[in-house]
Amino acid sequence: MSEGGSVRPGKAGDGAREPAASKARLRLWLKLLKATKHVEAELRENLRVTFDTTLPRFDVMAALYRAESGLKMSELSSVLRVSNGNVTGIVDRLVDDGILVRIPVDNDRRATTVRLTKAGREQFALMAARHEAWVDSLLDGVDVSEAQDMLDQLERIASKSNTKEA
Predict the structure, then answer these.
(1) How far, CA to CA in Å, does 71 sit from each of 11, 53, 68, 110, 163?
(2) Which residues pair with 132 in a beta bridge?
(3) Residue ranges of the alpha helices (H) in 52-106?
(4) Kind of pairing, strands 71-72 and 100-105?
(5) What are 109-154's pLDDT values in tens digits?
(6) In this structure, are residues 49 and 99 in contact, taking their beta carbons and an 8 Å threshold?
(7) Is the pLDDT of residue 69 over 50?
(8) Which of 91, 107, 118, 154 is the most exposed place for a label (fewest CB within 10 A)?
(9) First-residue to last-residue Cα distance in the chain
């Protein structure tokens, strides 16, 4: 690994000194990716069939549900880790559907805050409950202690990654 923590092209990572560990970590990554894609595909299909919506719309609604007073578009993009352009089209459609409302920001004519309408909050609450049940069903082979162990390990990986980005 490089000093900054990321593996640079042409540089050997820590696993180059431990081939068995490197291969195990690569297999782990591939299994995580496969499992994530499987769960995400199921959730996308369930959202489409049950609520006639998409995962990106659900994600926007989830972010705004947690921010009751709403978020500026730039804040929403940051929370979702996508570009403003990616969010704008989704927000436009959610506004047209009466799920979101745009509110002008005082002292900044260019900016707007978006937040869920009452109907949007109610709809998201229903969707979130079903989403949780779907995830629970998809992961029902994982007991609580295993889930907590996995969460701890993933948090360790994420925090290691976050410190390298800073």
Answers:
(1) 41, 21, 9, 14, 26
(2) none
(3) 55-66, 73-80, 84-96
(4) unpaired
(5) 888 999 999 999 999 999 999 999 999 999 999 999 999 999 999 9
(6) no
(7) yes
(8) 107
(9) 16
Q: Cα 19 from chain centroid?
A: 32
Q: Which of 132, 120, 143 is nearest to 46 (CA)?
A: 132
Residue whose entry in the numeric block shows the structure tokens 């047209």? 96
Lookup result for tokens 């929370």: 79
Tokens for 74, please give them. 């730039």
Residues sharing a CB contact under 8 Å with residue 30, sequence separation 6 or more, in sequence order:
none
Cβ neighbourhood burial of 130 (10 Å; 0-12, 13-18, 19+): middle
Report which secondary-structure segment, H or E, holds 56. helix 55-66
- Give the three-state DSSP class for 10: coil
| Global model pTM greater than 0.85 | no
Q: What is the pLDDT of residue 110?
A: 86
Residue 15 has pLDDT above 60, yes or no: no
Is 50 exceeded by the pLDDT of residue 10? no
Q: Which helix (H) or strand (E) holds 27?
A: helix 19-51
Q: Are strands 108-116 and 71-72 parallel, antiparallel or unpaired?
A: antiparallel
Helices (H) and strands (E) in the chain, counts: 6, 3
CA angle 146, 29, 147 (to 5 degrees): 10
Domains along the chain with CATH numbers: 54-165 (1.10.10.10)
